[in-house]
Design brief:
Shape: elongated
Strand order of the largest sheet: 1-4
Number of helices: 2
Order of helices and strands: HEEEEH
Number of domains: 1
Bound molecules: zinc ion
Number of strands: 4
Distance between the termini: 18 Å
Largest sheet: 2 strands, antiparallel
């Protein structure tokens, strides 16, 4: 394991809000993150030659016990 959150199917970039894509909101529930966020993984997409890989984050709201 590398410290990321439990494996879960990530949404596509098209499904993300601006805040989620910017790492400001939880990728699962859209709650704004302030502390305790952990990486939920990287959404890997391409647009032609452009790599659009986007790291997304989850908060305690979705990663806590
Ligand atoms: Zn959440």
């Amino acid at each position: 394991m590398n410290g990321t959150a439990v494996e879960r199917q990530l949404p596509t970039l098209a499904e993300l809000t601006w805040e989620q894509a910017a790492g400001r909101a939880c990728v699962w529930c859209k709650k704004l993150l302030d502390h305790g966020a952990v990486s939920a993984g990287v959404i890997q997409e391409r647009d032609g030659a452009h790599v659009l890989d986007t790291e997304v984050w989850a908060g305690p709201c979705c990663t806590g016990p």
